[in-house]
Amino acid sequence: MRKFLLFLFTIHFAYATPFAYVTNIDNNIVSVIDTATNTITDTINVGNGPVGIAIIPNGSRVYVTNNRGDNTVTVIDTSTNNVTATINVGNGPEGIAITPDGSKVYVANNSDDTVSVINTATNNVTATINVGNGPEGIAITPDGSKVYVANNSDDTVSVINTATNNVTATINVGDGPTNIAITPDGNRVYVTNNYSDTVSVIDTATNNVTATINVGKGPLGIAITPDGYWVYVVNNSDTIISVIGTKTNSVITTINIEYGSLGIAITPDGNRIYVTSSDISVIDTATNSIIASITDVGTNGPVFGQFIGPSTLPGQEVNGTLPGQEVNGTLPGQEVNGTLPGQEVNGTLPGQEVNGTLPGQEVNGTLPGQEVNGTLPGQEVNGTFISIPLSLPGLEEQQKSLTVKVESGRLMDVKVVDNQPLDIPLPGGKKIELPYGIISFDLEVNNPGESTTVSLAYPYNPNIMGYIKKIDDQWFPIEANVRHDPDNNQTIISFTLVDGGVNDADGRVNGVIKDPGGPYIPQPQPSVTVPLSPLALGFLAALFGFAGSRKIRRN
After folding, report:
1. C-alpha pair distances (Å), 341 with each of 186, 190, 347
2. 345 domain residue, yes or no
3. How far are the Cα atoms of 122, 218, 379 from residue 234, in angstroms, in the given order?
4. What is the CA radius of gyration of the chain?
5. What's the burial of 193, exposed, middle or buried (CB within 10 Å: 0-12/13-18/19+)?
6. Domain of residue 208, residue span
7. Fewer CB under 10 Å: which end of the chain, C or N?
8. Dihedral angle at the C-alpha atoms of 161, 165, 170, 176, nearest 10 degrees?
9. Same domain, residue pair 276 and 400
10. What angle do CA 358, 364, 369 make, to 5 degrees?
């Protein structure tokens, strides 16, 4: 049975400044890091081979699994950083998770194929549950009803009902499932499969695998942004992080890092990612770039996940309690409109979707995920960004990206439909060229029938005149503004779309705008004519009468 020794950190948020608690497997300590300054502020002696960490949701205590012979869990009081209890569990404890109400701790015991259940009021083990072979990563749904356990040695995930502590389902996944993360709405579970280089996606309503996503080599750690839109996967064998969009369950971009990475955690505001390796790398989610490195933390080893608590300000009273206090096992100060964190409110999770935007927006016009010449530098925007590669011959390496920005609403899907230049024949021996092929995106507006402005930043091409859409196999030029920016090596095309309007490909007022199309260049060359609508023919005939204009209007 394969066995990982862990190096896990997580983020603690009982005070104004979040703290990271980092396990050091070889020297039996936990380092405490102030994430405001990214400096080590304390070290705590724990058991032998500390590997996993979970923080009680109110931030008052940290639970640490000790894997090398101790077979214990250490309990740390975060107000003093002193050890207050040591709990005997099963053999080879690794992954650990705490229920959202803070009442129970679930510990995956890798060597005896069990899960120990700890009552946090007494710090006693109250149940031992048999699961699959070699349990490692573990996670609990936001409503606290189910525990998902990755069984590394038999390629399954066990599902435990927390009310009865019985296994209710066993799910076959990829080869070597290692770590688990659950979306904030509780609808999907993402599992890293270390040996098959994939991530399995499980529907929690049916406990069926609904997607398998190819990622990098040796995926281990996994974390999901607080708004649920992005999944970050640490690939230990090829020094990259894969970024998955949850709307499409596809890898949107990758982040290069210096060393093979192990664990990953995201701050509760979604602004920063902490990645364990030889050092700890700090990544800004707005740009997906490394902004800091924390050294001299300790030795590293494989890791099973991240567990994040809420953030409150020091000294604040919340519903009559102080931060860090437990009130009947609940989370003081965490009620949202009468519900607890993780509970659904009108079908959504409190605080998870804000105006339908994506994480990392409003970054002076730059793209969250990649800093490329295709971004919109210096613009203050209030919307959504994404970047996709353009695989076109003749483009410089730094030019191979398209940035898509929306002023309001949310991009649901962006893809290149045809990544080759296309010629569209016109009557009279003329034609237009689509130099970057066809892109397609689905855009969700805030309310049905609303409009939004879209900006596309392509590699610089001074010949681009406008934008043309394809609807029902016919081409329609639309009103667009074209701005050429040679200094930043980009051509920016902006236009307004209305849900259910003439430029919405599905033609329905349904809250979603569909847009297949691309930028075009007039090319006076003989060609075979293809059918075009009368509207398109009239417009394109007028177009060549003022080919020098940069503003295209549809009649």
Report:
1. 12, 20, 13
2. no
3. 36, 8, 32
4. 26
5. buried
6. 9-294
7. C
8. 110
9. no
10. 45
Please report, for residues 387, 402, 449, the alpha-carbon distance to residue 465 in angstroms, rounded to integers and kept in the order given.
22, 17, 28
User: Of 18, 19, 2, 92, whose CA–CA distance to 52 is shortest?
Assistant: 92
Of 294, 326, 360, the one marking the end of a domain is 294
Q: What is the pLDDT, as a whole number, of residue 420?
A: 67
The number of folded domains in the chain is: 2
The string of DSSP letters for 368-392 reads TT---TTS-TT----SEEEEEE---
How far is Cα of residue 452 from the mean position of the Cα atoms in its chain? 24
Q: Which has more pLDDT, 253 or 150? A: 150
- Using CA atoms, how far apart are residues 214 and 233, in angstroms rounded to an integer? 11
User: What digits encode the pLDDT tens for the residues 297-311?
Assistant: 765 554 665 645 445
Among the three residues 294, 319, 347, which one is the final residue of a domain in this structure? 294
- Chain segment 180-199, per-residue pLDDT in tens: 999 999 999 999 999 999 99
| H-helix or E-strand spanning residue 536 | helix 534-543
Tokens of residue 65, six digits: 């699994």
Does a structural domain hold residue 389? yes
Q: Which residue has the tokens 């389902």?
A: 169
What H or E segment, with its residue span, contains residue 540?
helix 534-543
Residues 275 and 413 grouped into a single domain: no
